From TrEMBL:
Keyword presence, Nucleotide-binding: no
Record-given protein name: protein-ribulosamine 3-kinase
Keyword Transit peptide: no
Enzyme class: transferase
Length: 286
């Protein structure tokens, strides 16, 4: 993308500093991304089609909620907007980003402890990857909220017969039954929502997170996903428990929380994820 267009995007975000250097960043499978160095600051800019603006606004809101907890390093969101037939998101750039998860446990737990709300859900629609999330804020207990607004919602998006012969309501009721004993232990807490190794790392030795799919739920959903595509490791969990206890029954709940992400991958990619989701659902009834 040209220096002029990126400069116009920065100006639309209230940044008038001269651009010194631009680097296109690879690895993103949804949006284009650029590291833009100015005389005063280095920014990270994502661009997409104008129709993608809701996704960028959601990411911006999630980063704002994380930032407001003052617990864990994340990019500072500047603005999400539309300009020159492009939607964009401007944020600060995390310097010297490296892989690493072990030290994230303690600041993540502090975020879970600090980021509290009155209801489960989120004030605006957010996205997990490209998939819309039903963030309706209600007074439902956690077991009912997760079963209805995560599992049933994505099953209906997929077309449930692709995954299971069981009615969606039967699956929903089984999940509520399994999660219900945990309801009194769960208060609505800010979660990253898509916490795998590709969405976290370290910056000059400080743990950081980015690309959130935020909502207020059970902090264990982040712990569960940290084990879905290769575990963050024992030290991560030990550091987490320096701040917050992981309640009994987590291993059972982990399968249900990660069922959502398997279903989401089935929705986006199909294939073996459909078979895996079907197997997990049937295992709940044994």
């Amino acid at each position: 993308m040209s220096k002029n267009i990126l400069g116009e995007i920065l100006k639309d975000g209230g940044i008038t500093d001269e651009i010194k250097h631009i680097s296109e960043c690879g690895g993103g499978d949804i949006s284009s991304a650029y590291q833009v160095q100015t005389a005063k600051e280095t920014y990270f800019i994502k661009t997409n089609s104008p129709s993608f603006i809701d996704n960028f606004r959601a990411e911006c809101a999630g980063l704002e909620h994380i930032k407001n907890t003052n617990t864990v390093l994340c990019p500072t969101p500047i603005k999400a907007g539309v300009l020159n037939k492009l939607s964009y998101l401007i944020m600060t750039c995390i310097p010297n980003l490296r892989s690493g998860t072990a030290d994230l446990g303690e600041p993540l737990a502090r975020m879970h402890k600090a980021g509290q709300a009155q209801q489960f859900g989120f004030p605006i629609t957010t996205f997990c990857g490209s998939t819309v999330l039903d963030n309706t804020m209600t007074d439902e207990p956690w077991s009912e909220w997760f079963a209805r607004h995560r599992i049933s919602f994505v099953l209906n998006q997929i077309g449930p017969k692709r995954i299971t012969k069981r009615p969606v309501k039967e699956v929903e009721d089984k999940i509520i039954e399994i999660l219900r004993p945990h309801d009194n232990e769960v208060k609505p807490t800010l979660v990253h929502g898509d916490l795998w190794s590709g969405n976290c790392g370290t910056s000059q030795g400080t743990p950081c997170i980015y690309d959130p799919a935020c909502y207020y739920g059970d902090g264990e959903v982040d712990l569960a996903m940290s084990e879905l595509f290769g575990s963050f490791g024992r030290k991560f969990f030990e550091n987490y428990e320096k701040v917050l206890k992981i309640h009994d029954g987590y291993q059972t709940r982990k399968r249900i929380y990660n069922l959502y992400h398997i279903l989401n991958h089935a929705y986006m990619f199909g294939g073996g994820y459909e078979t895996e989701a079907s197997s997990i659902i049937e295992s709940l009834f044994r």
